[in-house]
What we know:
Chain B: InterPro entries: Beta-ketoacyl_synthase, Ketoacyl_synth_C, Ketoacyl_synth_N, PKS_Beta-ketoAc_synthase_dom, Thiolase-like. With 374 residues, chain A is of the alpha/beta class. Chain A has helices at 38-47, 75-79, 89-105, 127-139, 158-167, 182-195, 212-221, 242-247, 270-285, 303-309, 323-326, 333-346; strands spanning 6-7, 23-32, 35-36, 53-54, 66-68, 116-121, 173-176, 201-208, 230-231, 233-241, 254-263, 292-296, 318-319, 355-361, 366-373. Chain B has helices at 26-35, 78-93, 98-103, 117-130, 137-142, 147-156, 172-185, 202-210, 243-248, 274-288, 306-319, 330-333, 340-354, and strands at 5-6, 11-20, 23-24, 41-42, 55-56, 106-111, 161-166, 191-198, 234-242, 255-264, 297-299, 326-327, 356-357, 380-381, 386-393, 397-404.
Amino acid sequence: xxxxxxxxxxxxxxxxxxxxxxxxxxxxxxxxxxxxxxxxxxxxxxxxxxxxxxxxxxxxxxxxxxxxxxxxxxxxxxxxxxxxxxxxxxxxxxxxxxxxxxxxxxxxxxxxxxxxxxxxxxxxxxxxxxxxxxxxxxxxxxxxxxxxxxxxxxxxxxxxxxxxxxxxxxxxxxxxxxxxxxxxxxxxxxxxxxxxxxxxxxxxxxxxxxxxxxxxxxxxxxxxxxxxxxxxxxxxxxxxxxxxxxxxxxxxxxxxxxxxxxxxxxxxxxxxxxxxxxxxxxxxxxxxxxxxxxxxxxxxxxxxxxxxxxxxxxxxxxxxxxxxxxxxxxxxxxxxxxxxxxxxxxxxxxxxxxxxxxxxxxxxxxxxxxxxxx
Amino acid sequence: xxxxxxxxxxxxxxxxxxxxxxxxxxxxxxxxxxxxxxxxxxxxxxxxxxxxxxxxxxxxxxxxxxxxxxxxxxxxxxxxxxxxxxxxxxxxxxxxxxxxxxxxxxxxxxxxxxxxxxxxxxxxxxxxxxxxxxxxxxxxxxxxxxxxxxxxxxxxxxxxxxxxxxxxxxxxxxxxxxxxxxxxxxxxxxxxxxxxxxxxxxxxxxxxxxxxxxxxxxxxxxxxxxxxxxxxxxxxxxxxxxxxxxxxxxxxxxxxxxxxxxxxxxxxxxxxxxxxxxxxxxxxxxxxxxxxxxxxxxxxxxxxxxxxxxxxxxxxxxxxxxxxxxxxxxxxxxxxxxxxxxxxxxxxxxxxxxxxxxxxxxxxxxxxxxxxxxxxxxxxxxxxxxxxxxxxxxxxxxxxxxxxxxxxxxxxxxxxxxxxxxxxx
Lengths: 374, 425
């Protein structure tokens, strides 16, 4: 639903040229189990060696024995001691990821901070922070003797809001949630925000933390047969009009053609819904499925078959499968997949003019995809 | 590349779904707003022993089975029950046939502060009693924030749909409505169900209590004696479509969405910023093509805390040389968090249709530091053409929405939109 159509009118607050023209991805970064920064992420994908490892049962008692953790990551280690005493893990991952991205964008990006948007997907925020706060209320001498400095961590816009505060980003600041599709939904929302003229460029991404509490909730919520190791981290990218990217010295890595979403109402309809979704997206973008050379799927059952059904017979795209390498990163999962496509673009894949897809099937009845062109 | 140019569509509100402590359904809600009904009562959804005071604005007569047809209500957390019920109400209120809606491309965007934190409270209670191994899988599954929007899709059996939950805290309703507006305006979708939902929970009550911002008895926005917020709950979902679509089906039009503005203070985790809010109001005016003098009343964020009300009033006076009446429906509904600005938008739409300004109740003496006319205690009959709805959130997330009366082909703003794009009707 985010095809590159533009509005005739300058659009709301049409003070900048940003509200017309197609959007490109002109920078990206990630903080992931592969390490901190885009290079570490690209290298991890190239090596195709899983970053999922054994969990320390002392530090992470819980139902999972393995997970994809950002090794050695803590708020203080990544961001310094100042201002991080009560910062929770997902917030720190978000602030760090956005910081890594800003570094790659160059210092001029925030010259007009009120015209730069930030759209961040974080699922239910930090369920660890939320439930710890409730625990303190239930177990303290008085139910209100909780740490007030930790209250903001329990509100789900904390990670996006704190990223804006930390880095001085004053444009629209939006938090997005939608299960595994969160990263794709954030991308769609960000493109719409830009097209509506609400910002000149938009930083967009998704973050998720590993915590004991999240692990227990995921364990109970998942079907028994579907409990892959969990992952965590953040991925973020810059969306801006192509001409502006070039003017700022940022070479576009890929163009965003469209995002598209659909729903299914019986488990057996999930695959067909995704097939329909991909077909619709390609049609809306006015491109041929024959040009699809790269696909980064979520890793849901039947997903790859559903994607192939939407492409011409004999299509043989390259698959980048993030989940086996990084674990199930929940709200960050489709964000990691997008970052993987951008990493491949940085390596020159696919060739100019060819297409990449990012896809997902959520267990709550929704599917989605994004179409990117080199 | 497909980069055709499209004429922006005008966007109208044709259906309201509201679940509130002063009435469920547009008619009951309207009657509550007109008569200045109060939703305050002692909180019962969690054990309040140990708090010196624990009033709130809960909904004590909500039966999800009365509204939800296709989902077992036990599969939904309380906030999702509210959002699903409100969405179904909005579709019915719009006179939109379900089969017709299923043929359209739809955006469902639901804002929230806490998602299903009421369930997370419950899960923590269980965990303390019996250990994390014993958590109820059904409650764990339904506790995800994404379900506030995807459950609407499931209930209405939509297929060509994008479902997004927007947890931008206490301004989330306006964010969600704004995104629905953008999507229809650009012709990306043919209908939007947009608003917000939240349920009262221990976690958030406790947080505000600890900050000293929970009022002992009632919410008194802009009053000299105001003592804070009361946590409330509910959902407000607007059915929006293009003006063309509404006219073609002969739908009743409550109001036109003229535009909105967003910005971020990027300054403080909880304290609002006057200058930044003023800037957001100016952005909203510019986007909507209106001037301060066009605004007939402001539906304020108006939480009733010392800090919010004086900061918000300051921002309003900064933009408006002569501020219009400025009311807070939170005096009646409590602070319904992510639902707050969605319910306030519904109230604004009804004010425009019915020609009145809702009151700020529990009002004795206006704080001279605020210096606004809060329409104390009794609704006021008024010719309402253009309304501004403010929303602020933790982390300095501001969102200001402008609604106008639909009066025929020309939009009602005085400043006018860019010349292109007016020909939709």
